[in-house]
Each structure stands twice: as C-alpha cells, then as structure tokens.
C-alpha cells in the first residue's frame, strides 16, 4: 500500500494525554450508537461497560508520540483525506453535499459530545452526536496481535468502516435504525445491528474501489485481501469462537466473517453506493 505523499485531511483532533474516564452516558441515540455501532470488534456490551472507569477525563500534559505513533497519525490523516476525496465525489455525483467528519485520536478514555465517555475497550467508534470518529492508536497493535489482521490496509479498513457509519448518519440511516430499537426485542434488533454494520463494511469497500480514481493512494490486490482478512477477523462467529469456544447467532451484532467479507467485497467490486442496501438482503433475516 502506497500512501506516503497522499493528501492529508487535517480534520484530526489529538486528545492524547487525557486520562481517566467517567461512566459512559447512554442517553439518546448517541449512547446507543456507541454501544451498537462502536463495538467494531464485537464483544459483550455488558462486559465492556464494566470496564468503564469512574472519574471524568481531564487534561494532562503534552503528549509525546513515539515514532510509530507519529507514523500512524500521518497514516490516519492521509486515509481520512482519501475518504473525504472519494465521498465528496460520490455524493456530488448523486446531487448531494458531503459534510466531512473529524477523527479524534485519544488514549485510554475520551469525552464526546452526545455519546458520553468512550473507552479504548470499546474499539474504534463513531459518535453521531458530534459526527466524529474516535480511535486509540494502540488498536493497531490489537488488529495485528490479537485479531491477526495484519498489513497497513487493516487499519485503513477500520477507518473507512467508521466513515461508513458517518455516511449512514448523514443519510439518516442511523436515526431510522435507532427509532426501531424501542419497537423490537433484543433478538430482533440484533439483526438490524448486523445489517447496519455490514452496510458500513460495504461503504468501506466502495471507498477502496474509488481510491485510485480520486486520490494518489495506490492499493494492490494484496491490500484488498488484507482488508477481507481484517473483515473476517472481526466476524461475530470468529470472535465468539475465540472467546467462548462456541457461537450464539442470536447475539450477533456485526455479522459473521463470511458476511463481512461478502459486503466489503461487494462494495469494492461495484463501487456503487446504491448497491449496498443490506436491509433488503433476505439472507440476513
């Protein structure tokens, strides 16, 4: 993957050096989306909530990046810039205007506007309340060492997936799915959550399809394979098998490895934003 020299977004907010974390506020759509959409890596929401600390985050001293963190900051800036270039063009082609999102980089815990306090334990997440993506750079090590998703494109896929949630928010999808929550059982809503996550995977694939057209980032077939491996690594079935030794399909919230790979690849193959209506995929019902 060739990304050095690519256009930087500049829409990066560095909140590293903050510490602590107030218990996550779950009021309204913001808190719900952090739980349902923000758990990119899957997992038990109750278990994750138990990891939230009790003290509010506060400003710390100046954060000194390691060489690797500085490289990852540069990488994330360029990837975010490429998503802006791609989605601005796609939106324009459909007669829409694309409002950019901000990527907030933090470590440990971070206070959001509308989604309470997020924690690294949640993994990367998107907060519709402030239309920002939140990422702890240490997650890159988890991708490789814990989930076996190796290669630079794995992190690019994660960022593009969260931008996919931003697309859903802009188009009103997240509001619609949140409105369904009070009308459904947990089991029924889990299916809606899966469809939501798979659509974000699809949008990540659409971005990968158009990168060569709208930016100077160069992807190889091996990069796309890395993306599919990353999608497979975070499938609900794979994660549950790793953690519990068995799977419970009724508790899936993000989709199986096969489903995640399928929708990412469909986005990459078609490059068509209108081909990703996961909510009408009868195989997911």
TrEMBL record:
<keyword id="KW-0472">Membrane</keyword>
<keyword id="KW-1133">Transmembrane helix</keyword>
<protein>
    <submittedName>
        <fullName>Metalloprotease</fullName>
    </submittedName>
</protein>
<keyword id="KW-0645">Protease</keyword>
<dbReference type="InterPro" id="IPR007343">
    <property type="entry name" value="Uncharacterised_pept_Zn_put"/>
</dbReference>
<dbReference type="GO" id="GO:0016020">
    <property type="term" value="C:membrane"/>
</dbReference>
<dbReference type="GO" id="GO:0006508">
    <property type="term" value="P:proteolysis"/>
</dbReference>
<keyword id="KW-0378">Hydrolase</keyword>
<dbReference type="Pfam" id="PF04228">
    <property type="entry name" value="Zn_peptidase"/>
</dbReference>
<feature type="transmembrane region" description="Helical">
    <location>
        <begin position="24"/>
        <end position="43"/>
    </location>
</feature>
<keyword id="KW-0482">Metalloprotease</keyword>
<dbReference type="GO" id="GO:0008237">
    <property type="term" value="F:metallopeptidase activity"/>
</dbReference>
<keyword id="KW-0812">Transmembrane</keyword>
